[in-house]
Design brief:
The structure holds two protein chains of two kinds. Helices cover 16% and strands 37% of the residues of chain A. Chain A is of the alpha+beta class. In chain A, strand 7 and strand 8 form a beta hairpin. In chain A, helix 4 crosses helix 6 (387-400). By secondary structure, chain B is α+β, with helices and mostly antiparallel strands. Chain B is built from eleven helices and 44 strands. Classes of the chains: A alpha+beta, B alpha+beta. At the A-B interface, strand 2, strand 3, strand 6, strand 12 and strand 13 of A face strand 3, strand 6, strand 15, helix 6 and helix 7 of B. Strand 6 (63-67) of chain A pairs antiparallel with strand 6 of chain B, so a sheet runs across the interface.
Chain lengths: 694, 698
């Protein structure tokens, strides 16, 4: 490109006008250069663009593209004194200082979420948030997402302003806006998208005022209107409103949930005017930011929340979904035949194994796509499907094999308690298959879980069994502790020089076996590399001599792994007469219970039992001088018991730790902390041997 | 497999005379785009589009221009459902041998064949042909085919994609199974023209063979000199045939570099000549898989690779980049004023540079907007970044250099490959990098700073910049960035431990830091809520000894980058000393070390760190009255080319003192010296886990 070909016209006044690049178009040239400014005009052959250096004329052949800055509300506002919007003005007048919120990165000054349901089959969803950034870690508030489905929804950024500490009002640049598909790499599940944008000058002291609107087509059926709103977040919230505008008499169902200690946090106002009902839920008092704690429950458990949906009953919801599923194409004969063959060989478990191993799981939650599954034949042919599709096909194949079952939707425990008064298919984030005779739920999700093992987050969870007439919500099963078992057995010999030869067997079932099974994909060399690293955790000097494993991919065989290691210098010789070592494989930590107290309750991903047992032959000429003190501990949430004994030159160890509860109130924490600390303390104690004098 | 385009944006050029009229595409905010038109005009308010209604400016999002007769959409060429190509078929026997040689492997790649073609008009294409046998469920992921391209510059077409099941059933990826989309990026990245074509080959099961071929066509490159083919010949699965061909017009000089070729394998390509073109061919057969090891170098630094270019010289390559950079390094009155304001109280030139370094780090949020080659290589103008108060590494480096110029300091934006991303090619004149930092030139000394970070005290800079080549396009040279000495990545801990006769201990700790250690600690605690910090520290001390009680925790100068960060931690450890009849034993708090990087007995690849490290621990343990040591771990002293260590206990007048010094002297430990390094770190880890024994006198 020859620059002299361009017509240069300098306008010094224009440069002044462009001193602020608040509303700028971007000119992209074929040679890769770009300029910020304003498109002034275009002829059939050329583009006239005013940039920082003045107005230039470019042949169209040298231009790649021009991105025009979108016109948005408040574009004319350049300084804080020009602001007229009452909500923003109120926020700016009463904005808190950094000192008032010494712990927070940002504070939400005002949030309003409006659902306008006045157009049949359409939800006009408007979100406005005014945020003040207090510190560097609050700068993330400058980045925003408007989530939408690309086939039914239309997003629009109404405005995104930055009010700087010195009173300038900056506007969003369209360079910093991007529409993108979350599952672009999975065409068959491509639907969820986001309009992502970044505000200017998102630094401490800036106030950001962002509003976007998404027009969502929600005709009902499998695409019902449903929303869950929370009135507390990581950042403090000073004001928040949730507004629903609906034709009078067609108000949605709603349920306000105010967990203990939050009663009265949200008030409701109802207003009827011109045939329209306006429901407004308002935060009655500011909410402080949420402090993160280990093993804390999802916020749905402890913050005020509101569930809203089109009115329905659970029974009707289930029946309608069943009716929709019944219209799906039938299972092709080949798959029916396959199901029968599998069931004859190994019952429902064989069909399960076919599903989890034969069809790879696409990591697309049903809420990110749609509740209408793909056709069974398509799923099977593609051999790649999300959980809902897999369970749909699984149920169809089980039915073909004569197994009485139904598809079920499940609300995982991480989503929080279900709003019983707001029936909706959208309340569920997972799916399963309900085996009627066994009264158990299974999900064909993972090839590291055996038939009947439900992922921890789906245990004891609300479920809707599809098509079961007259039944409301069910609850998924809780496994027995023995069904969620991990065990470590060892057999070791210590010599008089402190060297240890040890054989360790790790085994696991249920979710506690999945870590072992997940190693199934490793090649032998990589497997060995991994095991050498496992051995090094026993002791820095550990040398892996050999190993054995079961077929970790075979779900019908319990997963186990045997390591044989030599550990030179395992026991420390302390002087001439003492030798000390720790009990192999007994390594516990109490870091997660270090806090003296908690704000939130306790929440665990699952229950289970951890066993350790082993024997260790002592070197001749030595006797146990001191050993860790065994103890028993029992609380509602956990229990632990150990036995450590010496007999005829050997030490034997037995330990059992039970995690019995999925959740517990904060009041249970001191006792839980005590139990975990006792266990960690046990691991700290050494076996001390003393040379026996002859 | 294709070497990732090691460049900030995808390059290349166009010879305009080869094209016809400029075609236009008008994309409105609502509704469908109008495409394939010519002669659109704009009067400042409305677009007049030939054959269509006029459109107000406010309704138009984008206008694109291109010089093509016909725009070909990314997509698939319909393919029949025939079985494997003969080339793939020919590799099957060898695949069995490879599978046997690598037991437990998830799959064997039959074909990994790339072909770059550079055309006379400056456009280029890349065709990739893959075939692989799936041996475990994990490798069913090969069914997922994704090809990236840049809208308006390049396109991709899938020539065919199919699976052949063990029973011989052939399933085909058909055009309707493919979609083009804008892939999701991390929140801070905005690359609006980046698209992908993706699809999933159906019917892939264990035992299936997956085969596909796609073509990437740079039909509208930005600069024809940026043609830079690259290829890796090894991966985590064994490969029967890995081959790359690079075809260029005969008259174009092609420069290339190869790395990591096994001994005995010629690095020079086979050259095939035909009418008007020259083709360079590199080929590997029966490549074993790479088995990952902890702390190994990036894969691209261990596998055989080639990279090529057509720049005639570094001067030419740097000239292109320098022009882009210079156009952005423009001082403005606002920038000058801010630089003066920031530095007005600074006394020395170092103080001034430091103040600007802090300002750019703290006042420019990381947001990366890459809409063009210019933005990709050199970011936006200094003023744009200054106005927006956001930008990426290139933007921040440009702004930083411009502000330094405002105070009379010479500096340059520097393109680098961070040390976790593979070693930059310096043997041939290419332009590639994944990061941009700043070189500062003061009389008698040049040094580097990285303003992309947010927590670095002057003159320290990010550890992934250490020990790598620095490309200074404006000055036109490549210089090594030194690895700082361990003393510049230091953690100094002093502990006073008061032990009671019942085993309770009271610990008072003072920690001081510099370099990357300081930045890491500062960043961690800045991200934590203030009201959570003590609680988090409580968790840490409870992991030292269960039942620990944090008594006080202070962070000094956390928010002030100009001052060294230090920390004090006071805590009680009930029962830390464990009584065993007449003995008491305890481990020194915070002494325990783990070195997973030496967990393997032998290694195939070096151990690689980002930088050096120094750690000094001094513990003064005051014994309970009447106690003395019965046994103290013997001293450990190690000194080799990679690590220096001294750990020593001493007892003196009712005190046991531990003095520990650890220095990692090098960033990389080669395989040949792994044994001595492994033994050294294992000895240190063992030393760190030993308790001391006390006994009560009388």
């Amino acid at each position: 490109m020859t620059r002299s070909q361009h017509t240069f016209t300098l306008f010094s006044l224009a440069m002044m006008a462009l001193a602020s690049v608040a509303h700028s178009d971007t000119l992209y040239l074929q040679d890769g250069e770009q300029h910020l400014g304003r498109l002034k005009s275009m002829t059939a052959d050329s583009v006239v663009f005013e940039g920082r250096d003045g107005v230039k004329t470019w042949p169209k052949s040298e231009v790649s593209r021009i991105q025009l800055q979108r016109t948005r509300k408040y574009d004319d506002v350049e300084t804080v004194d020009q602001i007229t919007d009452p909500d923003l003005k109120a926020c700016l007048e009463k904005q808190p200082t950094e000192q008032e919120y010494p712990a927070d990165g940002s504070v939400t000054l005002f949030a309003r979420h409006t659902f306008d349901l006045t157009t049949p089959g359409v939800v006009k969803d408007t979100v406005r948030t005014i945020t003040k950034i207090l510190r560097q870690r609050g700068e993330d508030a400058g980045s925003n997402n408007a989530w939408y489905f690309e086939d039914t929804d239309l997003p629009e950024i109404d405005f995104a302003l930055t009010i700087t500490p010195d009173g300038r009002v900056l506007h969003l640049s369209d360079d910093a806006v991007k529409s993108e598909s979350i599952y672009a790499q999975l065409p068959m599940y491509r639907r969820l998208s986001r309009l992502r944008f970044a505000c200017k000058e998102p630094r401490p002291g800036s106030v950001l005022d962002v509003q976007y609107t998404v027009i969502r087509k929600r005709p009902g059926g499998l695409e019902p209107f449903y929303s869950e709103e929370f009135f507390r977040d990581e950042a403090p919230i000073l004001r928040k409103e949730v507004v629903v505008v609906a034709p009078a008499g067609q108000e949605p169902s709603w349920q306000l949930r105010e967990p203990d200690g939050t009663e009265g946090a949200v008030s409701l106002a109802r207003k009827e005017e011109n045939g329209v009902t306006r429901l407004t839920w308002t935060l009655t008092q500011p909410q402080k930011g949420i402090i993160e704690e280990p093993q804390m429950p999802p916020r749905a458990y402890f913050v005020p929340s509101l569930s809203i949906a089109v009115s329905a009953s659970w029974e009707k919801t289930s029946e309608d979904y069943a009716a929709a599923l019944s219209k799906m194409p039938a299972l092709p004969d080949t798959l029916k035949q396959k199901a029968l063959e599998l069931a004859q060989k190994g019952g429902a478990a064989a069909v399960y194994e076919f599903m989890v191993r034969g069809i790879r799981t696409a990591p697309v939650p049903q809420g990110h796509f749609r509740l209408a599954p793909h056709a069974p034949e398509e799923i099977a042919q593609r051999a790649f499907a999300n959980e809902l599709d897999k369970n749909f096909l699984f149920a169809r194949m089980l039915e073909a094999a004569g197994v009485d079952c139904s598809l079920a939707l499940v609300r995982s425990r991480s989503r929080g308690p279900i709003a019983q008064e707001v029936p909706s298919l959208r309340a569920f984030d997972r799916s399963a298959v309900y085996l009627t005779r066994e009264k158990r739920f299974v999900t064909a999700l993972s090839d590291v879980l055996s038939f009947g093992d439900l992922p921890g987050e789906m245990q004891v969870s609300p479920a809707l069994i599809i098509g079961h007439r007259g039944k409301g919500l069910a609850v998924t099963q809780q496994p027995r502790l023995e069904e969620e078992l991990s065990s470590t057995d060892f057999d070791a010999t210590l010599d008089k020089d402190g060297n240890l030869e040890i054989r360790l067997i790790y085994a696991g079932v249920g979710n506690n076996g999945s870590w072992l099974r997940s190693m199934k994909d490793l090649a032998d060399q990589e497997f060995r590399t991994q095991l050498e690293q496992v051995a090094s955790y026993l002791h820095p000097a550990a040398v892996l001599k050999s190993y054995e494993k079961t077929d970790l991919a075979d779900l019908s065989v319990p997963a186990s792994l045997t390591l044989c290691c030599a550990i030179p210098g395992y026991a420390v010789r302390a002087g001439d007469d003492l030798m000390l070592f720790n009990i192999p494989a007994m390594a516990y930590d109490a870091g997660d219970v270090g806090r003296p107290e908690r704000e939130h309750g306790l929440f665990w991903s699952g229950i289970g039992r951890e066993l350790i047992s082993g024997s260790l032959r002592l070197p001749e000429g030595y006797a146990v001088y001191s050993a860790p003190k065994a103890f028993r501990f029992k609380s509602h949430e956990i229990s632990y018991k150990t036995r450590i004994a010496e007999k005829r030159g050997s030490m034997s160890v037995r330990g059992a730790f039970d995690q019995k509860a999925y959740e517990a109130p904060a009041a249970a924490y001191p006792r839980y902390k005590q139990g975990k600390e006792l266990r960690a303390d046990l691991a700290r104690q050494r076996v001390i041997l003393k040379r026996i004098s002859h | 497999m294709r070497k990732t385009l090691r460049i900030l944006v995808i390059p290349f050029i166009l010879t305009i005379s080869a094209w016809g009229d400029v075609l236009e595409r008008i994309t409105p905010y609502r509704g469908d785009a109008v495409d394939g038109i010519t002669g659109t005009t704009f009067d400042g308010e409305r677009f007049s589009i030939p054959g269509h209604d006029a459109v107000p400016r406010t309704d138009v999002q984008q206008i694109e221009f291109r010089q093509e007769e016909k725009r070909e959409q990314a997509g698939a060429t319909p393919a029949g459902s025939e079985g494997l190509t003969p080339l793939a078929q020919a590799q099957l026997d060898k695949a069995q041998q490879l599978a046997k040689a690598s037991p437990g492997i998830s799959g064997v790649i039959l074909l990994d064949v790339g072909e770059f073609v550079y055309r006379e008009d400056g456009t280029d294409s890349y065709r990739y042909h893959f075939a692989g046998v799936v041996l475990k469920e994990e490798m069913k992921s090969w069914a997922q085919v994704t090809c990236g391209f840049t809208e308006g510059r390049s396109r991709v077409r899938l020539l065919f994609g199919r699976s052949v099941a063990p029973d011989g059933t052939v399933r085909t990826l058909t055009p309707e199974m493919l979609k083009v989309g804008s892939p999701s990026e991390e929140m801070v990245f905005f690359s609006p023209t980046r698209k992908i074509l993706s699809g999933v080959i159906p019917g892939v099961e264990v035992g299936s063979i997956v085969e596909y071929c796609y073509e990437y066509d740079n039909y509208n490159p930005e600069d024809k000199r940026l043609f830079s083919p690259g290829f890796f010949f090894q991966g985590t699965e064994p490969i029967v045939l890995s081959q790359v061909k690079v075809q260029l017009p005969k008259e174009i000089e092609f420069k290339y570099v190869t790395r990591h070729f096994p001994a005995g394998v010629p690095t020079d390509p086979k050259i095939e000549e035909s009418s008007g073109t020259k083709t360079y061919v590199w080929q590997f057969e029966m490549m074993p898989p790479v088995t990952p090891e902890p702390m190994m170098p990036p894969e691209q630094d261990v596998v055989p690779m080639m990279e090529g270019c057509i720049f005639k010289s570094f001067e030419e390559a740097f000239g292109l980049l320098a022009e882009l950079q210079k156009a952005r390094l423009r001082r403005t009155p606002e920038i000058d004023a801010k630089a003066q304001e920031i530095t007005k109280d600074a006394q020395t030139i170092d103080d001034k540079i430091a103040q600007i370094y802090y300002w750019v780090q703290e006042n420019t949020r990381y947001i990366s907007i890459k809409g063009s080659l210019g933005a990709g290589f050199s970011g936006h103008t200094a003023q744009e970044t200054f106005d927006n108060r956001y930008g990426d590494c290139t933007d921040k480096a440009i702004l930083f250099c411009t502000m330094l110029e405002s105070i009379g300091v010479e500096s340059y934006p520097i393109i680098v490959y961070t040390n976790d991303a593979g070693t930059a090619v310096t043997e041939i004149p290419t332009l590639s990098g994944n990061h941009c930092i700043t070189e500062v030139c003061l009389p008698g000394r040049n040094f580097y700073l990285d303003s992309t970070a947010q927590n670095y005290r002057y003159p320290y800079f990010r550890m992934d910049d250490h020990g790598i080549p620095a490309f200074n396009a404006i000055r036109g040279d490549i210089r090594p960035i030194p690895v700082p000495p361990p003393s510049d990545n230091r953690r100094l801990s002093r502990l006073d431990v008061m032990l009671e006769a019942n085993g309770d201990a009271l610990v008072k700790t003072v920690n001081e830091y510099n370099g990357n250690v300081e930045a890491g600690v500062r960043g961690f605690w800045k991200r934590a809520r203030e009201d959570s910090r003590k609680l988090m520290m409580s968790e840490y001390v409870n992991s030292i000894s269960p039942g620990a009680q944090l008594q006080d925790f202070t962070l000094n100068n956390l928010e002030d980058l100009a001052k060294p960060l230090s920390m004090t931690i006071d805590y009680a450890l009930p029962g830390h000393g464990i009584r065993a009849k007449d003995l008491m034993y305890l481990r020194m708090p915070t002494l325990e070390r783990e070195y997973p990087e030496v967990s393997l007995e032998t290694r195939q690849y070096p151990v690689q760190y980002m930088t050096t490290e120094e750690r000094i621990l001094e513990i003064n343990l005051t014994l309970p009255k009447g106690f003395r040591s019965k046994w103290l771990p013997p001293p450990l002293e190690i000194k080799n080319a990679y690590v220096e260590y001294k750990g020593q206990y001493e007892e003196e007048a009712g005190h046991v003192r531990l003095h520990e010094e650890f220095r990692r002297l090098q960033r990389i430990v080669p395989v040949a010296d792994y044994g001595i390094y492994r033994d050294a770190l294992r000895s240190i880890a063992t030393f760190s886990k030993q308790e001391i024994f006390l006994t009560q006198e009388g």
